[in-house]
Amino acid sequence: MELASNKQNFQDWVTQQWVILFGKKINSQEYKWLLGPFGNNNGIGEIFINQLAESENISISKSSKNKGLLKSIEQLNLPSSEKNRLSKNVIDFYENTSNYKLYLTTKWNPIFLVFGYLLKFLFSKRLEQLNIPLRNNKNSQEMNSEIVQLTDKTTEKVKRTIWLRRFKQTNQIIYSGVYETCKIPNGKACIKAIFPLPNGSATVILQPVVGENGELILKSAGRKIGDSGFYFLLKDKKGDLWTKFIKSFKDNLTVSSENGKITANQKLTFYGLNVLNFKYEIKKLQPTKYIKNSGFSA
Question: Which H/E stretch holds residue 201?
């Protein structure tokens, strides 16, 4: 029987072994659309950014302005009718994400809150990853949102885009994710959010559609491997790749603009039951308030 690497924390080993037992071994060429950077055993968060730059021999961009999760909305390959309907403010947010600040409100289903505490106790705080707030809050919390680009040392072409989000008040990292686009087997262009974990990642593939009012709707609601959805990926002790598709877990994110105000609503469900709701206020920074150069070093 294949085994996860034993040179790591026990709880990480157990979760990786679960993926091996109930998941599928995959080929890196056949599943290139799904793969992305994996984390190491000695931390994720900001440490991961420097490790990734060093391992791929790329540089960390120091510029802080006009950097987006997407280089262009054209990467989503939307039908002309949908692209023409999409809000220009939403497009600007995705193409210039670093020019915006976010305010977050969370609402848990009490039934699932215990799983939030387990996630935080076993993984989140230690790994500086997926630090989801555990309290329902009526007042939004301000987030520092930073786009970190890793570029080719010669051509200066962007090779990796990382979205680092943390609470402004505590400086605690909430998410450290690599964002890119991919084309899933049915030919649809999707956004791929890769959250590095020890020897693997939690990867969410979101398929875009445009709503009637110009909102961008991103869904991970597939039924099988190859669809949009939530995937665990890992590399085992021998270096073989595995994935587990979590069919029961769905993510629906809607980013909209009304009267010049951008908001985002994200709903996470498990077997059709509401687990957690995120609401974001998204405000454009004034030119004097752009975040200064990153302190990361390549």
Answer: strand 200-210
Q: Which two tokens stand for residue 141?
A: 């919390």
Distance between CA atoms of residues 92 and 100, nearest Å: 10
Pair type for strands 58-60 and 141-152: antiparallel
pTM of the model: 0.90
Q: Write the CB contacts of 251 (distance below 8 Å, at least 6 apart in sequence).
A: 204, 206, 218, 219, 220, 221, 230, 266, 267, 268
Q: For residues 243 and 51, give the distance between their C-alpha atoms in angstroms, rounded to a whole number.
A: 23
If one counts every other C-beta atom within 10 angstroms of the C-beta of residue 255, the result is 23
Q: How many alpha carbons fall within 13 Å on the CB side of residue 98? A: 23
Cα–Cα distances (Å) from 281 to 104, 257, 265, in that order, read 7, 10, 9
CA distances from 163 to 20, 127, 134 (A): 29, 16, 21
CB atoms within 10 A of CB 178: 22
In order along its 298 residues, the chain shows pLDDT tens digits of 788 888 888 888 989 999 999 999 999 999 999 999 998 877 677 888 999 999 999 999 866 788 999 999 999 999 999 999 999 999 999 999 999 999 999 999 999 988 888 887 767 766 777 777 777 777 788 988 899 999 999 998 999 999 999 888 888 888 889 999 999 999 999 999 999 988 999 999 999 999 999 999 999 989 999 999 999 999 999 999 999 999 999 999 999 999 989 999 999 999 999 999 999 999 998 765 555 555 555 4
Structure tokens, 92: 């600007």
Interatomic CA distance for residues 39 and 123, integer angstroms = 13
Interatomic CA distance for residues 298 and 283, integer angstroms: 30
